[in-house]
Each structure stands twice: as C-alpha cells, then as structure tokens.
Amino acid sequence: MSISHAPPDPSGADISPISISKDDAGEHSPLDLVPLVPTSSRRTRVPRWLRRTTGPLVLLALWQLLSSTGVLTSDVLASPGRIARVGWDLVDSGSLASAMTTSLQRVAIGLLLGTVIGTGLALVSGLFRVGEDLVDAPVQMLRTVPFVGLIPLFIIWFGIGEAPKVAIITLGVTFPLYLNVYAGIRGVDSQLIEAGESLGLSRWGLVRHVVLPGALPNAMTGLRYSLGIAWLALVFAEQINADAGIGFLMVQARDFLQTDVIVVCLIVYAFLGLLADFLVRTLERLMLQWRPTFTGR
C-alpha cells in the first residue's frame, strides 16, 4: 500500500491530506483498530447465583466448624449435620409435610382476609375525603397496638381453635397493606389527574386508569411487608394451644429440649417466607413492566 501527499500550498501551509491507496487486490487494507472496552466489562463477572449463595455457605461452614470443635455444644445448638438428619427423619415420617400444610392454610386464609380488609379500607380512605375522616384515625390508633398483646382477647372472643390464629395473622397483614395502598393512592401525581380530566375521563375512569395503576407499586411493596408479618404472626399464633402446624412441632421440641427440631422448624419458616417473597417479586415484575427501575450496578 502506498501513501501519497498532495502538492504543497503556495502560501506555504501544509494542508495536504493523506490519501491511502488501494492494494494490488483492489481492497482497502484493514486498519489496526483497537476496540475500546469499558473497564467494568473487562472484569471477570462472577455469576449472581454464586455471589448470593457464598454468604450462607460460609456461615454454614463456620457453624459446622464451631460444632465440630466443641465451641457449640448440642444442647445449645445442634450441628448442621445433625439438623439435616433430623429434618430428613421429619420428612420421611410425614410429620413435617402435615405441619407445613396446616401452617400454609392458616397463612393463606389470614393473608386473604387481611388483603381484602386492608385494601378495602385504603380505597375508602384514599379515594374519598369523608372516608379518610371516618376510617384513617381508627386504623392509625389500632395499628399502634401490638397484635401479640391482643392474643388473650382473641382467645376470649374466638376460643382456642383456628379462629384466633387466623385473626392474629389477619390483623398483622391488614395494617401494612392499608398504609402502603393509602400512600400509593395519595401519592399519584396531580398532573396525571389533570391530564386524565382533560381527556374526558370520568371519576371511575380516573380511578381505574390513573389512580390504581399509580398506586400499584406501593401496593406490591405493602404485600411483601404483609407476607413477612404474616409468618411472624404465625409463629405467635401457633403457640396458642395448637395441636398441628410448625409451631406445634416447635412447642413439643421445646418441652423435650430438642434444639435440632426447633432449628429445622425455623429453617422451614425462613424458606417458606423466602418462597412467598419470590412469588410476590415475580408478580411485581409481571405487573409493573411499564415502570423502569434501577436494578443496581
């Protein structure tokens, strides 16, 4: 490939461009271009699932090490190996599956009732000023009362069957949903309301197409909070004269000082809560595809 220069300018200024001629084959020779790659892209990326499991695995290994060296005795906290064997025995005997089924039924009923009540009260209070005057103050008063402190009263009202257990879960679920849905309704941009009115939307049309979609992100956040509180309420509820459920297994294990069974039940509680949160987050991604969000760097 040959490089030629144009004749110099009479004024003495060298303004000649450099021209690149074609090679014998009539094709341009490739230039040695080095692509610019961001520094973050050149780093070796560790799979996210591996990063998320590293912490629990390190904690589990430390736990096993302390148990093997005798720092943690079995009467204080059983070793992971012992807990795994006890968990398998509970699964094999069918007692754990039966307890999980009972606990899931209680949570499902309480969550359904709490969602209906909390969302209904939030709609009345958020959409209507009269509803806010009538509903918001009593709800704010009741939510400051610890629901655990109402257990004796629920026993007097509903007895010692399933009703007080479901009532405790319902009460724990209601208030987070109410607060988040109410905040979502009242947090809708007023300019969106004005735009909807200028387009001729009726009151119901504004509620359906503007207010409720705008409040949906807060509602999903409230649902996640409510699920966490539902499992917490279940722990307390199943301590009330329960004859079935995960809490019943924990009470029996407490009486016989079986820390391994207690830990198995706590792990089951944790995994059920994690599974429920995963389902809600999946539902949130499906229902809120229209909302761009920051996902981290």
From the structure above, extract its key features.
mainly alpha, two-stranded antiparallel ribbon, 68% helix, disordered N terminus
Write the layout of secondary structure elements.
Blueprint: E1 3-5, E2 18-20, H1 39-42, H2 48-68, H3 80-93, H4 95-127, H5 129-143, H6 151-158, H7 162-186, H8 190-198, H9 203-237, H10 246-255, H11 259-287
Antiparallel strand pairs: 1-2
Helix pairs in contact: 3-11, 4-5, 4-7, 4-9, 4-10, 6-7, 7-9, 8-9, 9-11, 10-11
Instruction: Work out the number of β strands.
Output: 2
How would you sum up the major sheet?
2 strands, antiparallel
Tell me, briefly, the overall form: flat
- pLDDT < 50 stretches: 1-6, 10-22
How many helices? 11
Determine the strand fraction and express it as a percent band: under 5%
**N-end to C-end Cα span:** 46 Å
- Strand arrangement within the widest β-sheet reads 1-2
Can you give the helix content as a percent range?
55-70%
Mean pLDDT: 77
Q: Helix-strand pattern, N to C?
A: EEHHHHHHHHHHH
Q: What structural class do the secondary elements suggest?
A: mainly alpha
Computed over alpha carbons, the radius of gyration is: 32 Å
What does this structure look like?
The chain is an all-alpha fold. 68% of the residues lie in helices and 2% in strands. It has eleven helices and two strands, in the order E-E-H-H-H-H-H-H-H-H-H-H-H. It has helices spanning 39-42, 48-68, 80-93, 95-127, 129-143, 151-158, 162-186, 190-198, 203-237, 246-255, 259-287; strands at residues 3-5, 18-20.
